[in-house]
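Schema walkthrough. Field components (list of strings):
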Amino acid sequence: MDYRIEVENLNVYFDELQVLKDVSLKISKNMVTALIGPSGCGKSTFIRTLNRMNDLIDTFRMNGTVLLDGGDIYNPKVDVVDLRKKVGMVFQKPNPFPKSIFDNVAYGLQVHGISDKDVLTEKVEESLKAAALWEEVKNKLDKSALGLSGGQQQRLCIARTIAVEPEVILMDEPCSALDPISTTKIEDLIHKLKKDYTIIIVTHNMQQATRVSKHTAFFLHGEIVESGSTDKIFIEPSDKRTEDYITGRFG
Amino acid sequence: MEKKYPRILFRKRLRELRKDVKEMGEVTIRAYKDAISAFINYDDDLVKKVIKTGEKIDKMNYHLEHKTMSIIASEQPVARDLRFIEASLKVGGHFKRMGYLAANIAEVARYIKDEEIPEKPMKDITQMAELVENMVSKSINSFLDQDMKLSRELHRDDDEVDDLFDLAMKDITESMFEEKDAIYYMVYLLFVARFLERIADRAESIGDRTIFMITCEKP
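Field assembly_structure (string):
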């Protein structure tokens, strides 16, 4: 099995509070992995560890290893900007920049030193097409991204993420602020993107996990209780706590 | 300690579903007993009642299907809840078939009511009928109580019914050779033996469904 990410014995603390306890998880290439669990169980902290977003928090401490393609991302020599290019992130609430649609997608490319207008134009179109947004915005690329609907804004954020050609896309509840139609579009997009990207999605929607992911990991109190094929987890979970959570016996 | 969210309405709907399956099971076994009784001591009213009950079980199954679909659509069940709902749907289908097979037995009773049935085939069939009644009852309880032991016993019982079916075939055929004029009504006895054997298969399938529901493995 080809793993894109290998996490071993990861412990994460904020001050004295331990939020992840001895977490180990291997994430396969070009596959969607869903992280489920009640609020405060450590799912978001876990994915934020994968692109070192937690580094921005003063009280953050960690030990254990996080390997991306076999390389330790917490090695002091790692360039964090370069890491976040490889491991992109889409957030719960769409967060486009108060700029034009074009500039939103071109931004990441410019940060990474691409200034040729033709290359930018080509890349922006390619990314918007990949994010299934092109047809809706091709005639208003210079208009403000803030004028788009929530679902369009979220797809724009996905376009912005994939413009820099990451290897991994982290999605932290990407549909929780969207209506059902926009949710369907994002889910279809996830299906389309998985052949080129490794996707890790945090979701509170069990059905969404079953629809989009091949693998699922269930977090509880900072630990992974169970991880494995999504079918197995949702039809015959091995651990009683997983069963109780997914069947809604506690939340 | 986690907060408990017991999904009160969902739990209630699952309890109701179980109650419906239980009720269907009770109606099915009553129909079966009546069919056998009408076969042994012919009673025209009882035959009509069994035929009607077969149709009633069909309707009950239809409602059960509706209910399960509605629960799946609105509650999106997973894991053991999903397996229970899926099994209920299948078990309902088996009851429906059993109900119609009971009606078939009752209908056949009409054709043989005035005939003298030879002792040996009659003995085979009554013995089969007793065993099958026990299997139907066992299958209902195995599902409702999620009893793996009872479910497994049904395999052994079904083998026994199959052996009795072979014996009944042999004895009925022999009687046909002995009394050629009897062939036209002895054929109906073959049907009865066949219907009983199929009811036993259904009971065994309910046991298998129960095992699948509990273990998620093919028995």
